[in-house]
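Structure in, sequence out. Go:
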């Protein structure tokens, strides 16, 4: 029963993030900074409300790391939102998933962790998928590729910072710091290219934060209820859903090689996840 609930929550999470990403692409008449501002503002309503209702200290205890996580995460978000202005939605979401490659590199450099040679092979498959996407998909300009890759680098660093924080901070406190800093970063950046929303755009922009928050909430619940190696692969359905949204609702065009590249990216990451879980089971047996 718990496993079925975990699947249910992960599917809800994936759908929520898909709607958020679809709205981001639909709203690209607004600058990336303005999108970041509204994405974070919509989530703060829930994070502040939760922390206050539970009596959890908002400032936390490891404030330097929390601020650093917020700054790095906000940088990654801005760059990804910029990339969506140039790249088809499914390709952008797929390429951002190479963040674990950079997380592994940072883990070696900063945490002195070991990565097995076969894991580098899996990462190479994923990275070759990015090259296939760029090489054969004429809808991916160099600037869009650069933005999404650098966004993934910062996203990989976020993983390391969160691991350094560990369980010493309440998860919603970490998210709340991220959203607070993202509001500031997005707000300052948006000043120079502000476009006042009209009509339904107010609702759509604020909805970014709502869908983003519930996507994160449902994903957390899913991992709490189910085994990571069984639940995590469902996360990659987000790429599949993003492609559908792009084709059906946004009029995007994809090529056969686009799907080959996306499949290589996800396939390499799934192989790495499978291998890590296999090593964990060996240690526990």
């Amino acid at each position: 029963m718990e496993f079925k609930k975990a699947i249910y929550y992960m599917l809800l999470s994936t759908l929520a993030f898909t709607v958020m990403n679809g709205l981001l692409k639909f709203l690209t008449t607004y600058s990336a900074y303005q999108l970041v501002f509204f994405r974070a503002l919509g989530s703060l309503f829930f994070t502040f409300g939760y922390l206050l209702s539970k009596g959890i200290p908002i400032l936390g205890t490891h404030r330097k790391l929390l601020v650093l996580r917020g700054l790095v995460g906000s940088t990654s978000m801005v760059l990804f939102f910029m990339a969506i202005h140039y790249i088809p939605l499914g390709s952008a979401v797929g390429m951002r998933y190479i963040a674990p490659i950079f997380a592994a590199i940072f883990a070696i450099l900063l945490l002195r962790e070991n990565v097995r040679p076969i894991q580098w092979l899996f990462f190479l498959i994923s990275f070759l998928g990015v090259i296939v996407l760029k090489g054969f998909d004429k809808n991916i300009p160099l600037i869009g590729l650069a933005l999404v890759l650098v966004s993934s680098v910062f996203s990989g660093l976020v993983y390391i910072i969160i691991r350094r924080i560990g369980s010493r901070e309440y998860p919603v406190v970490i998210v709340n710091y991220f959203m607070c800093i993202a509001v500031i970063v997005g707000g300052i950046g948006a000043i120079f290219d502000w476009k006042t929303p009209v009509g339904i755009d107010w609702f759509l922009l604020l909805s970014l934060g709502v869908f983003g928050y519930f996507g994160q909430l449902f994903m957390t619940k899913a991992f709490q209820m189910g085994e990571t190696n069984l639940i995590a692969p469902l996360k990659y359905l987000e790429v599949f859903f993003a492609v559908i949204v792009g084709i059906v609702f946004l009029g995007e065009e994809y090529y056969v090689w686009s799907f080959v590249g996306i499949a290589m990216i996800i396939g390499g990451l799934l192989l790495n996840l499978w291998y890590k879980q296999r090593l964990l089971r060996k240690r526990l047996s």
